[in-house]
Amino acid sequence: MSPVIPPNLALSPIVAGAWRMADWGWNAEQRVRWIEQCMELGVTSFDHADIYGGYRVEALFGEALALKPMLRQHMQLVGKCGIKLVGEARPEHRVKHYDTSAAHITRSVEASLRALQTDHLDLLLIHRPDALMDADDVAEAFTSLRQAGKVRAFGVSNFTPAQFDLLNSRIALATNQIELHPLHLSPLHDGTLDQCQRLRLRPMIWSPLAGGALLTGGDERSRRVQAALQAVGQRHGVSAATVAYAWLLRHPTRPHPLTGSQRLEAIREALAALQLKLDAESWTEIWQAGSGHEVA
Asked: How many Cβ atoms sit within 10 Å of the Cβ of residue 238?
């Protein structure tokens, strides 16, 4: 039997993804102003991973947060670990690989806390499924980090239902951060979202706009989805991007979509989806455009 699942995460309905921050070319003052503006709009949760920006993004965010440390009391920080990249920042790595050992998880969290200039993460995720993952070892690390007050909740990212069940049998997980959009429909049908609903977990959704393909992709399938999003948007007087977020939010698991943009207008478009509930026909029009066929 699975352990008791913790209450739903106290994340904002839309989560700001900071993974591109190293590419923005902003100084610390510009970064902290962006953080403030997100929070003023109601986006109080910020998604990170140790590897983002070649292991640089957490420190850039922490440098900005240090200018106004009181903001930390009103935000939620999400971290991820488990991937080891090859590059200048980690010359000791010979090949890109995964490491979900208790020692690595603990070291990663300690490094993230230093970089972010905070004393805890609100949520820590294992970034990718690791074929060598020892569930007992991960649970031991999670338990120690929680007892030390360094992480408040735990989850995973990109896990299949079976992989989720394995780790959840050792320690209660709070979420699975997955890719989902009309060009990537498999979580709707492979049991991933069924599992979230069964366990009453709210998934987190990365790449909700398919890396921009839902708005600007040039292949036939992308153009089909774009036309469907635009048609629904015209009926409701909103942008195609807002419809794409509303399509995700229509699911009964009440997912937390991540934005990946520095543009406040893009974040406002995501937030506008909170006021738009698609009917089943409109939702299916978009699903049909992505799948290339009508429902059976």
From this structure: 19
Number of H helices, E strands in the chain: 13, 10
Instruction: Please tell me the predicted confidence (pLDDT) of residue 104.
Output: 97
Q: Between β-strands 45-47 and 76-81, what pairing exists: parallel, antiparallel or unpaired?
A: parallel
Residue 5 has pLDDT above 50, yes or no: no
pTM beyond 0.85: the answer is yes
Q: What confidence tier does 2 reach under pLDDT thresholds 50, 70, 90?
A: very low
Say if residue 206's pLDDT is above 80.
Answer: yes
Pair of tokens at residue 4: 């008791």
Q: Exposure string (b/e) for 23-62, b if CB count within 10 Å is 16 or more?
A: eeebeeeebbebbeebbebebbbbbbbbbbbebebbbbbb
Read off the pLDDT of residues 158-177 as tens digits, 9 standing for 90 and up: 999 999 999 999 999 999 99
Neighbouring residues of 137: CB distance < 8 A, sequence distance ≥ 6 = 100, 101, 102
Q: Which two tokens stand for residue 136?
A: 């007992």
Pairing type for strands 154-157 and 83-84 reads unpaired
Domains located in the chain, CATH noted? 8-174 (3.20.20.100), 178-296 (3.20.20.100)
Supply 157's token pair.
Answer: 């990212």
**Residue 70, class by beta-carbon neighbours within 10 Å (0-12 exposed, 13-18 middle, 19+ buried)?**
exposed
Pairing of strands 204-206, 256-259: parallel
CB atoms within 10 A of CB 3: 12
pLDDT at 4 over 90: no
* Rg (alpha carbons) of the chain, rounded to whole number: 19
Rounded CA separation 155/127 (Å): 9
- Enzyme catalytic residues: 52
- Pair 251, 193: CB distance under 8 Å: yes
Other CB atoms within a 10 A radius of the CB of residue 230 amount to: 14
